[in-house]
Design a protein that fits this description.
Radius of gyration: 13 Å
Structural class: alpha+beta
Distance between the termini: 38 Å
Number of helices: 1
Number of strands: 4
Helix content: 10-25%
Oligomer: single chain
Strand content: 25-35%
Length: 66
């Protein structure tokens, strides 16, 4: 995985908390964070769209709360 394969999120500010996304020839989406570049999450475009929709809709607001 070369650096040219990864695109930095436009929502990531300058600093250490940047999200990068990349895709493969078989349409697998890869995600990584700048703090842990060797840790890569893989998913499908449909699953990523569903996650983003849920987050935008507030359906995940309870996650991480006691």
């Amino acid at each position: 995985m070369s650096a040219r394969d990864w695109q930095k999120s436009s929502y990531s500010a300058q600093g250490n908390a940047c999200l990068y996304v990349s895709s493969t020839d078989d349409a697998t989406v890869r995600l990584r964070e700048s703090d842990e570049p060797d840790t890569v999450l893989t998913t499908t475009p449909a699953a990523l769209r569903a996650l983003i929709r849920s987050a935008k809709g507030g359906h995940l607001d309870h996650v991480g709360k006691p």
